[in-house]
TrEMBL record:
InterPro entries cross-referenced by the UniProt entry: 6-PGluconate_DH-like_C_sf (IPR008927), 6DGDH_YqeC (IPR004849), 6PGD_dom2 (IPR013328), 6PGDH_C (IPR006114), 6PGDH_NADP-bd (IPR006115), NAD(P)-bd_dom_sf (IPR036291), Pgluconate_DH (IPR006183)
Protein name, UniProt field: NAD-dependent 6-phosphogluconate dehydrogenase
Species assigned in the record: Tetragenococcus halophilus (strain DSM 20338 / JCM 20259 / NCIMB 9735 / NBRC 12172)
Record PANTHER family: 6-PHOSPHOGLUCONATE DEHYDROGENASE
Enzyme Commission number: 1.1.1.-
Lineage: Bacteria, Bacillati, Bacillota, Bacilli, Lactobacillales
Length: 299
């Protein structure tokens, strides 16, 4: 059985580790946060205090699996890993890396004779623990060797071999762009209902939408959950950070000279939500006052 070594035991990484441990795999891990050591080992994992220690006693059957923030952190870790790995070893990036970074990381690995797989992971922390959805790019023949991992990590029919290196993270990027649009549509719809003339039980609305309707989905189920807890969302600030994938999807739209207005508008709505200064809106309000004498709201 494969020996799995996970670098990055955050919310996603540690839940993937527990999923694998539940299925009888030997799982080791390293994270800069050593406070998770006792919990991880209590659940059957082996914690290493350094990257070097993790790599020193790896086995021929070891699979190194990265669950790290996208960008420089992951790219640097890939470079460190391939230098410490042997020809024929397997390196997996299960984070949300940009597909062009994964293509470059795949080339780094190939130069050292290491097989690199880019795995787009969806389903959140609960999916990582109980059954995820994964989109996999890499060598087709070597994929068959690690296919059993995806059989246990994913829900039934929940993994897809996409093609060469980069294709897994490309598909995950588009997936997240679609997610942006879906969430924005749900938010806008419930905003209209909330401000409309009828006093709906909003959790009840989400529940009926999620049972038999065309728009039923996991996201709608999550909407029901949060509206049951706090229908007015009094404790939530309407700031929506953007983690990168929506922007990358919009950039890909421009590169291909195609149209994706819903995804793009959802991204722009996120940008607007974090703009506390609203300087552009102030300009527009002032211009309306200048040319038409329209009232300007003052602080």
């Amino acid at each position: 059985m494969l020996d799995i070594r996970i670098i990055g035991l955050g919310k996603m990484g540690i839940n993937l580790a527990y999923n694998l441990l539940d299925h009888g795999y030997e799982v080791s891990g390293f994270d800069q946060n050593s406070e998770i050591k006792s919990e991880f080992e209590k659940n059957g994992g082996r914690f290493y205090s350094s990257f070097e220690a993790l790599m020193e006693d790896k086995k021929p059957s070891s699979v190194i699996w990265l669950m790290l923030p996208a960008g420089e952190i992951t790219n640097n870790q890939v470079s460190s890993c391939v230098q410490a790995m042997n020809q024929g070893d397997i390196l997996v990036d299960g984070g949300n890396s940009k597909f062009t970074d994964s293509q470059k990381n795949g080339e780094k690995a190939k130069e050292q004779g290491v097989y690199f797989f880019d795995v787009g992971t969806s389903g959140g922390t609960s999916g990582a623990r109980e059954g995820a959805c994964m989109m996999i790019g890499g060598d087709a023949e070597k994929f068959e060797y690690i296919r059993p991992l995806f059989e246990v990590l994913c829900v039934k029919d929940g993994y897809f071999y996409c093609g060469p290196v980069g294709s897994g993270h490309y598909l995950k990027m588009i997936h997240n762009g679609i997610e942006y649009g879906m969430m924005q549509a749900i938010g806008e719809g419930f905003n209209l209902i909330h401000h409309g003339e009828y006093d709906y039980d909003l959790a009840g609305v989400a529940k009926v939408f999620n049972n038999g309707s065309v728009i039923r989905s996991w996201l709608m189920g999550l909407t029901e959950n949060l509206l049951q807890e706090d229908p007015d969302l009094k404790d939530i600030e309407g700031v929506i950070p953007s983690s990168g994938e929506g922007k990358w999807t919009a950039e890909e739209m421009l590169r291909q000279e195609l149209s994706a207005p819903v995804i793009t508008q959802a991204l722009l709505a996120r940008y607007a939500s974090v703009d506390e200064e609203k300087y552009g809106e102030k300009i527009v309000a002032s211009l309306r006052n200048q040319f038409g004498g329209h009232k300007v709201s003052k602080k």
